[in-house]
């Protein structure tokens, strides 16, 4: 019983006042999403837990303890990408403390960022995308909505979070364009192709009002008539993937990756793809050139007589 009480007391102290102050700054000044804020919070609480086991307060950490923390993550078998993200969280946190003169020495100053393995995102072939988009039954109320959402997701490459938060005011079917609000509340205009326009128009005319329970402006309400969660739509994607006999393990960003990859495969300029995806840095978009090259190599090896 005493051990449990100690654990609860430790847990209650994990979110140090400096961590709270830092998260508040990210929310107020950087305009980060709840998911990103929760990621920072989780990383810093993990570090705080490690420090408590060594009787060190978070504003007294030095270079040595941070190196030991990195080593502990390796020993726990954490993925290199996870370790990179956590070190990045610590760097931003201690830069914040140093900038606000809350610490005298920045313990992250000499820490070298580990290089994360560059993983190619999982994507779908064009035939697989067609099968997925054709899976919903548009005569069914819920599946008509889902069909419009899938078409729009592939047509624009937007994030699932951006998709479920869309309102009627953000879309113009007549102009064939949608105003997407991305990370940091940055807005971008993305064109919509004719298949997506037709699917959304059909959905709005025949289905949306059936789902609405109030005067909500949300474009794609849940069956309860409110904004859908991204987790709910993710489950819907997996449901249609099974129906379409797509054998690969999909992620919430699979159609976003397919959108970008297919654009690059058909010769789209990388900076155009960057703008459409809402990437702030071109280097983030460059992963799709690797995807395209990997697909070309695969096709070459499969079909070339001397491959």
> How would you classify the helix and strand content by structural class?
mainly alpha
Helix content: 55-70%
Number-wise, the strands total 3
Tally of helical segments: 15
Q: Write the H/E string, N to C.
A: HHHHHHHHEEEHHHHHHH
CATH homologous superfamily designation of the largest domain = Intergrase catalytic core
Strand fraction? under 5%
Mean pLDDT: 82
**CATH class placement of the largest domain:** Mainly Alpha
Q: Into how many domains do the coordinates divide?
A: 2
**Biggest beta-sheet profile:** 3 strands, antiparallel
Q: Measure the end-to-end span.
A: 66 Å
* CATH architecture assignment name of the largest domain: Orthogonal Bundle
Strand ordering within the main sheet: 1-2-3
What is the name of the CATH topology of the largest domain? hpI Integrase, Chain A
Unreliable stretches (pLDDT < 50, length at least 5) are 1-13
Describe it for me?
With 307 residues, this protein is mainly α. It has helices at 2-13, 17-30, 34-53, 63-75, 80-99, 126-134, 141-156, 160-164, 194-206, 208-211, 230-243, 254-265, 270-277, 282-285, 287-303; strands at residues 171-172, 177-181, 187-191. It has two domains: 2-99, no CATH class; 126-303, Intergrase catalytic core (hpI Integrase, Chain A), CATH 1.10.443.10. The chain has 15 helices and three strands. Strands 1-2-3 form a three-stranded antiparallel beta sheet, with no helix packed on it. A hairpin with a 4-residue loop joins strand 1 (171-172) and strand 2. Helix 6 (126-134) packs antiparallel against helix 7 (141-156). The longest helix is centred in the first third of the chain and has 20 residues, at 34-53. Residues 1-13 have low confidence and may be disordered.
